[in-house]
TrEMBL record:
It is found in: Cell outer membrane. PANTHER family: BLL7405 PROTEIN (PTHR34001). Residues 24-232, 243-432 form the Outer membrane protein beta-barrel domain. Belongs to the Omp25/RopB family. Keywords: Cell outer membrane, Membrane, Signal. This is Porin family protein. Gene3D superfamilies: 2.40.160.20.
Amino acid sequence: MTFGKTWQALLLGAVSAVAINSASFAADSVTEAPAAAGFNWSGVYVGFGGGVGANVHEVSSPLTAPGFSFNGIGGEGVFGEVTLGYDYMISPRFLIGGLVDAHFGNISTKIDAAPFADVSITEKYGFDVGLRAGYLVTPSTLGYVLGGYAWQKSELEASGGGGDFSFDWDKDGYFLGVGVETVVASNWTLKTEYRYTRFSTANILSEFGAPDGVLDTDTSRHTFSVAANYRFGAQNGGTAAFESPAYSWTGFYVGGNVGAGAAVHELGLGGAASFNGIGGEGAFGELNVGYDHEFGGNWVAGVQLGGRYSGVTSEINFGPGKLNLDADYGFDLLARVGMKLNESTLAYVLGGYSWQHFDLVASGGGSSQSLIDWNAGGFSVGGGLEAAVTNNMTVNLEYRYAQYQSEDFDSSGIFEVTPSSHTVRVGAKYKFN
């Protein structure tokens, strides 16, 4: 694993820790009522933040074979964003709003075969325009869904063989997402957010005059961000506060999550070349058990064991048949440390051991066969926000990056795969008294 990939893996944990520390000046007055009773969620806000993400390109071309498509070619990276938005409370607990944000980053797919060729496809910058609808799970914490229009500038850069060249293209589509936002101090809120973006079909050879359909791509993107919002007029008085749950973070719990994400597998070819990477995407479900302990002040620490079944897959379709690389089931043993942003909301980071089963399956003619399967251990890091909704129940939104050990298929290092994944889950937990 390269230093760059390690840095990407740890980015969210670092950003989350910075966000938590930025709220620590309010730790001495972390009770619910002062933060919530007069907070006005209606009005204009500006925000800034950053995150991590992965994309999956489905490539199709009749020049290869009738019905051929490869879903997918994957990439990963980081990004920053700025946001301008407006929300309006339509009832004591519901709001609607609109937003515009701009992002810039380096989510990219790379082929490294120096000195012959280095090729990268990078998402440089773009913007989203959307609407959101939210529900106050506590007076200080908002859960919301959002969606809208997305536009992106992508660039292909290549070097080697005695020359360099590049070209770019635009693509647009739609995004859908879910998030959690909580009051941390005065006019400031902290949010975590997942977005799935789907772009319309793009002809990446249009720069050379090729007609549509010769080499087309359909791109999807999975991103997770942490951001701070400054809300103008938030202290001017808001809707009437309602009772918050009396939640203790100490105790055993059981929980369940549903989520989605993308895999990016780095393919190594005997040290002569690498391709980052082979992409896949899908949804999953998981169950977990754990224990948390609340320490003096506002700190919480705990451990968790979880198992999952996943539909994250990469697919090559060649007409009469197809190949799927499935990441189908696995488990995680994780530890986490969090800080209460208020009495009912926790920001946390986590990390630990992860195990995953992979299966390469060929299918066609009404039958399927496993060609090769293997197990891989590794690590996960991530973070999220968790909010109490009753005296025993919490809900959370969480991101994880997982990196697994390499699998050498021919025992010579000539053909080696290093799997990784970016996943986001929405979950609920029941804590026993």
